[in-house]
Specification:
Elements: H1 2-46, H2 53-67, H3 73-104, H4 116-137, H5 147-188
Length: 194
C-alpha cells in the first residue's frame, strides 16, 4: 500500500509539473501574441464599409473645416486623404512592433542584441497581412483594395520597426550601464564592505 501511495504521489507531482509548464507556455504565448491578434482584428474591422472613405470623410472633413475654415474644398479633401493614409501608416507601424515583440520576446534586462532576422520576419508577416487586408477590401461594398495602401502600410511597418530598434538600443544601453559596476566588480575580484 505504501508503494502505491509513493507511486501516486510521484505521478501527481510529475503531472503537476507538466501541467504547470504547459500553463506557463500558454500564458507566455498569450502575453506576446494576444495583442497581435487583437490589433489585427481592429485593422480587419477598420476594413469594413463603416470605415470607408465615404463614411469617414463625413467625420474628418467637418473637423478639418472647423480647424481651417479658410481652406478650399480640394484642400479639405487632400487633408482627409492625408489623415486616412497616416492612419494606415500608424496602424501598421504598431502591428509591426507587436509582431516583432511576439517573435523576439524581449524581456527587461535582456542582453541579446537587436535581431534583424526577427525584424525581417515581422515585416514579412505585416506585409502579408496588408496584402490580405487590401484583398479583403475588394469584397467589401464602398471599399477597394489598393497597392498604394499596401505600400503605405509597408513603409509604416518599416518605420515602426526602426523606432523599435531605436527604443531597444536605448533600453539595451541602459541595461548595460546598470549592470556595468557589478560586472567590473566581479572582474576585479574586489568586494566593497557594506
Amino acid at each position: 500500500m505504501g508503494r502505491i501511495r509513493t507511486l501516486v504521489a510521484a505521478c501527481s507531482s510529475g503531472c503537476l509539473l507538466v501541467l504547470c509548464a504547459a500553463v506557463k507556455r500558454v500564458r507566455t504565448w498569450l502575453w506576446y501574441w494576444l495583442p497581435v491578434g487583437i490589433w489585427m482584428a481592429l485593422i480587419f474591422t477598420a476594413s469594413s464599409d463603416q470605415a470607408s472613405s465615404h463614411r469617414t470623410s463625413r467625420i474628418i472633413a467637418p473637423v478639418v473645416r472647423w480647424l481651417f475654415p479658410h481652406w478650399s474644398e480640394p484642400r479639405v479633401d487632400l487633408a482627409v486623404l492625408v489623415v486616412r493614409k497616416v492612419a494606415h501608416f500608424v496602424e501598421y507601424s504598431v502591428l509591426a512592433v507587436l509582431v516583432w515583440r511576439a517573435l523576439w520576446r524581449p524581456q527587461r534586462g535582456d542582453a541579446r542584441p537587436w535581431s534583424w532576422r526577427a525584424a525581417a520576419w515581422a515585416l514579412a508577416v505585416v506585409v502579408a497581412y496588408a496584402v490580405s487586408d487590401e484583398y479583403h477590401q475588394t469584397f467589401v461594398p464602398n471599399r477597394e483594395g489598393s497597392p498604394w495602401d499596401v505600400l503605405v502600410d509597408t513603409v509604416g511597418a518599416f518605420c515602426g520597426l526602426l523606432g523599435a530598434r531605436w527604443v531597444y538600443s536605448v533600453w539595451h544601453r541602459r541595461a548595460g550601464r546598470a549592470g556595468a559596476p557589478a560586472e567590473k566588480q566581479a572582474l576585479s575580484g574586489s568586494v566593497t564592505p557594506d
